[in-house]
From TrEMBL:
Family: Belongs to the ABC transporter superfamily.
Protein name: ABC transporter ATP-binding protein
UniProt xrefs under Pfam families: ABC_tran (PF00005)
KW Cytoplasm (keyword) present: no
Gene Ontology MF term list: ATP binding
Region span, Disordered: 309-365
UniProt organism field: Streptomyces evansiae
Domain ABC transporter intervals: 2-227
Amino acid sequence: MIEANGLSKWYGAKKAVDDLSFTVRPGVVTGFLGPNGSGKSTTMRLILGLEQPSAGAVTVGGVPFRQLANAPREVGALLDAKAVHRGRTARNHLLALAQLSGIPARRVDEVLGVVGLQDVARHPAGGFSLGMGQRLGIAAALLGDPRVLLFDEPVNGLDPEGILWVRRLMRALAAEGRTVFVSSHLMSEMALTADHLVVIGRGRLLADMSVRDFIARNATDFARVRVPDHAPGDAERLAGLLRAAGGQVLPEPDGALRVTGLALPAISDLAHEERVRLWELSPHHASLEEAYMRLTQAEVDYRSTADSLEGFEEPDPFGERPPEPAAPGAGQSGWYAPHTPYPRTADTWTGDAVPGAAQEHEEAR
Ligand SMILES: Nc1ncnc2c1ncn2[C@@H]1O[C@H](COP(=O)(O)OP(=O)(O)OP(=O)(O)O)[C@@H](O)[C@H]1O
């Protein structure tokens, strides 16, 4: 169990983590979500004792990480898969970590097998692909057979098979009664992996609830309606009728209509009465990505500016744009627009020990 209580971290004038209180329970996978720069990695470093809180506290199994009697046996973490000695073989990298923590060498071969790196165990880690590096980082986290596991972006760089493997591994670890806390930007993957979510924005807690509740509270189911391609005027006519009946209607990129606020039978009846032929009338459940976008759209630090693409842009179907949210963060029912993430630049760092933090952590183990 991980418990954060009023946890805050300042870097100079920048408040990276702002009065966070949450609990990560054993037996389930808890997803840790937030836009770029929202404070996820900082929170993980605070949990692992790599940073001192400016205020508040965080404990693992009831005590601060640094007071754990045998930390590597109790907590495993993947923070930065690149934090390996490039010339060292995968096996020697793990052996060095094992020796520091009093873990028997045979455990190294076990975890190499678990992550599927046994055939390249004697190859230098510096030559590993991003995905192989992730697997090696996961092996290091599993080394001490810990009850609590933290993974920062574990599927980063993995191919679909690797992503499926990580999903199954996380779920299996949780099913064994372990505490599994995992951050990811891949919402579709998180929807399949996590049972519970902790969502932050600009360092503040935005949500702490089950995936199901999170989607139900932050996104709306909708219907897709499509008229025959050869009758585009019918789409415009049907959109007007649906709006008059109390529905909200937005154009989909493929020319279909996205309708919220009306049940499928009502849409069907209306189309039938008005003699509008339908080629599609299908129910759609809101996705985690949609719910996440709606909740966090006011919390994004890095946004792309509009690219007018003059001369390239397709005209809007029906000459309309989705309405802007009435208030920042209020969202727009049934609509979301992903923002292009902008990479953090080196000048946002103030020189704290972050780049080498994972390595320090590994060495401390
Ligand atoms: N050592 C540091 N010095 C100065 N600012 C920092 C430091 N570490 C983090 N920050 C700032 O704190 C904020 C939170 O950063 P953090 O890396 O925790 O976010 P994140 O949610 O993990 O982001 P991402 O999803 O991009 O990895 C950012 O604005 C970041 O620039």
